[in-house]
Amino acid sequence: MGKDRLYFLTFVSIALAVMLSATIGVNYSVKISVNLFLESELETGKSEVKKLAYFIAPKTKDSINEITFTKRIQEVLEEVETSTTYIAVFDKEGTLVCHPQFDEVNKEVAVSRELQNMINHGTEISEIYNMLMDYDRLNYDKETINTIEVLYEKSIKNTELKLASIISLDKLLPQIIKLKRRLYTIFILMGVLVIIISFFTVRYVGSFYEKKLESKNLDLENDIINLTKLNLGVFTYQQKIALQQKEKQTDKVEVHNDNQTENQKNRLLTYKGNELIPVFFSDIAYVFTENSITYVVDKDGKKTVSNASLDEIYGNLDATLFFRANRQYIVHITNIEKIIKYGNSQLKILILNSDADILIGKNKASEFKKWLNI
Known about the structure:
Blueprint: H1 2-56, H2 66-79, E1 85-90, E2 96-98, E3 109-112, H3 114-120, H4 125-133, E4 146-155, E5 162-167, H5 169-248, H6 256-265, E6 267-272, E7 275-280, E8 284-290, E9 293-298, E10 303-306, H7 310-316, E11 322-324, E12 329-332, E13 336-342, E14 346-351, E15 358-360, H8 362-371
Parallel strand pairs: 3-4
Antiparallel strand pairs: 1-2, 1-5, 4-5, 6-7, 8-9, 8-12, 9-10, 11-12, 13-14, 14-15
Helix pairs in contact: 1-4, 1-5
């Protein structure tokens, strides 16, 4: 149930992120596209107007017949296929005297140069875009008068006429809306694809790590079980040794010489400074070697030095009571506090009243278990 909720929240999060990215991306892309289109149309219209004004301009004012001249321009414009931008001619009063569509000639129009000024003055893209989107709410009555946006205009030499490059907002706005829809469609398709891929990727990665975590948890459980068995084995063995030692104690009277001989077999001669100190095997907590020196530590934590090597000492000890943990340490069973895991495959023996790091390697661990009869 928890995993399903996590996957659902992941799906919702990715979907919201894609929707937000699509909204921002589409609006920004449309604004950039519209701005680039307007700049391109402005330059194209400017070039066409200049060329046409140069070629059709009469040589002198006296050589012009206005009716014939405008008729000739009208014929030229009618041959040009109109698109979003087109060229038209105005007289000095602002009346439209030539237009690619003859029906529009001599109609009263309101000329707007707002778009031209915004582009020329480097107005921000967002403001130009907002101006176009607010086109239907401009302050004029569209039922009585038409408003046209002039991108560029130039006077025809030796006449009172003006050539103008005009952009048809009625044609531009549907193109913007169409572009917007196409971009939304593309972003939606891409978004759906991203959501599906991301969702299944998250599920796959989640399942992979979940299995890995389950495997680690299983290994951890096994380690805990094994350590529990090991520590229980240590405790059981300690109890067994304690019971055996208790049973060996008798009340019989022994000869002094026999006691002396027995004591010599159950003790290790060590020294501290110039003082010789005998240590009974039963009092040894652990023996270790460091820098080629063998140290003997008793149950009270007192440390003395022995001239014997670790191998020699181990040969004289009872193998049922002492264990050779590694090349450096020999430990007494009764002084083992507990066993813990160390690293990936090692065990660490904790000794009572000591902070010694006694490690048992992977290969030695099985021998240690056999020693404990596990």
